[in-house]
Each structure stands twice: as C-alpha cells, then as structure tokens.
Design brief:
Length: 193
C-alpha cells in the first residue's frame, strides 16, 4: 500500500508524469515507514537556527546604521570598530577579536587603507607584522558611527523590556561555555555585524 502524500511528509508532484520509471510499490512504502520513524527536527524552534536567523536580521538592521552613509561592508565595519576600540592592532589580532578569516580582514584593511581611513606601520618587535591604526579621517568616521551604534543597541535592549538582563546573562553563558575554541568563519561564509 502506498501512503497518500500528506502521510509521507511531502506534497504531491504537480506533474505526475515525472514519476515514470520511478520505484513504486513496497520499496516506496518501506521508505515512507522509515521516514515516519525518523525523528524530525523542527528548524524554526532549533536554537542554533534561531540564533543565526536573529543574528542575520539584527546585523541587517544594524548595517543600516553604518552602511548607507559610510559605504562600509560588514568586514570593514568590524575592522574600523576594532581599531577604534583598541587603537593599534595587527590584522591577526583583528581577525581573532572580530571572528573573521584572515582573507576578509585583509580585504577590509585594503579597502579602508584605500579610503585613507587606516594606515600600516611595521612592528618594531616583529618586522614580519604590520601594526594597523585609524587615521584622523578614519577615527572621525568611527566617532560619527559610535553614537548611532549605541542608540541602536539601546533600542534593541529596550525592545526586550524587563527580560533584557536575563537575555544578556544567557548570551554571556553561551559565550563562556560554547564559543571558546570555535574556529573563525571561512573566507566565503560567516557571521554578520
């Protein structure tokens, strides 16, 4: 007996002619039983998926703060913000702090350097390393973005109401317990913001 499509967990094909030559009968019936016996993951309630979706949505909203007026990509913003925070850093340190792969850091550094927002100088301790820092122009851009970023964060936390504190504590617990030793994103994928 072949189960109706609604019991097999998928919708019927719009063009049944595409099934010509397909396996039918007891084999399909067994596959349908196995399919039903498997545990199904409800993606929309799966925590890693939810965190990723939330991250992408918040990142997209936050990009509206620095993207249009300053024409910054996400990696460029991360480099700018890291140098704004620490003043001087190597590309490797920026990658580690902002969870970016070295190729993304390199491209962002080059883009900011082309705009004269950052400069490089050779490290006196290790001639193979370059120290990066914002120029006066880059620092000015950073200082214009910071109040907007803080206002964005304040609105986001306000939207959580009384639960903001518990939410932040939960994030801290996840960061402390789960993110130590997590590899950086690959050159062609990764996080936002």
């Amino acid at each position: 007996m072949i189960l109706p499509p609604s019991e097999r967990g998928f919708l019927p094909l719009r063009n049944p002619a595409r099934l010509r030559g397909a396996i039918v009968g007891p084999v399909c019936n067994n596959a349908a039983r196995i399919h039903h016996a498997m545990t199904k993951l409800k993606l929309e309630t799966f925590l890693p998926y939810r965190l990723n979706r939330i991250s992408a949505a918040v990142s997209q909203q936050f990009r509206s703060i620095y993207g249009p007026d300053f024409d910054l990509s996400v990696p460029e913003w991360r480099v700018l913000a890291t140098l704004g925070q620490f003043e001087v850093a190597t590309a490797k340190a920026i990658g580690a702090h902002s969870a970016m792969h070295k190729t993304k850091v390199s491209r962002a550094v080059k883009a900011l350097e082309d705009r004269r927002w950052l400069r490089r100088r050779q490290s006196e301790e290790d001639r193979r390393e370059e120290l990066l820092q914002l120029t006066d122009l880059g620092r000015g851009i950073y200082l214009r973005i910071v109040p907007r970023a803080e206002a964005f964060e304040k609105r986001l936390l306000a939207s959580l109401g009384d639960d903001a504190g518990a939410f932040l504590r939960g994030l801290e617990m996840i960061e402390e317990q789960r993110l130590d030793g997590v590899p950086l994103d690959s050159p062609d994928e990764g996080g936002q913001t």
